[in-house]
Amino acid sequence: MEELIRTNDPVVLSYAESLMKDFGIPYMIADQGMSVLEGSIGVLQRRLLVHEDAADEARRILIEAGLGAELRDS
């Protein structure tokens, strides 16, 4: 799995998730359960992960959707 986005912004994460669903790219949101432990104050970042085989396509989709600044270095 390759990490594409790490953020504590729920809007960015929701938009990225929606794009992955729309284009049929399997993904995983890591660290989502940690918000329960932190008290839901948004300090801990969540990560959008995709399989290495789909990473280039997912990056292209996210860039075209205006989320290029949110991407982690590959």
Can you tag this structure with a few keywords?
74 residues, alpha+beta, Alpha-Beta Plaits, 3-stranded antiparallel sheet
Describe the structure.
- This protein has 3 helices and 3 strands; from the N terminus they run βαβαβα.
- The protein has 74 residues and is α+β, with helices and mostly antiparallel strands.
- The protein is globular.
- It has a 3-stranded antiparallel beta sheet, with helices on one face.
- The chain has a single domain, classed as UreE, C-terminal domain (Alpha-Beta Plaits).
- The longest helix is centred in the first third of the chain and has 13 residues, at 10-22.
Would you summarize the structure shown here?
The chain contains three helices and three strands.
Please outline the helices and strands.
Elements: E1 2-7, H1 10-22, E2 27-30, H2 34-38, E3 46-50, H3 55-64
Antiparallel strand pairs: 1-3, 2-3
Major β-sheet strand ordering: 1-3-2
What would the CATH topology be? Alpha-Beta Plaits
Rg computed from alpha carbons, rounded to a whole number of angstroms: 12 Å
Q: Biggest β-sheet, characterized?
A: 3 strands, antiparallel
Helices and strands, in order, run as EHEHEH
What structural class is derived from the secondary structure elements? Answer: alpha+beta
Number of domain modules: 1
CATH superfamily: UreE, C-terminal domain
What is the mean predicted local confidence, pLDDT?
91
CATH architecture: 2-Layer Sandwich
Strand content: 15-25%
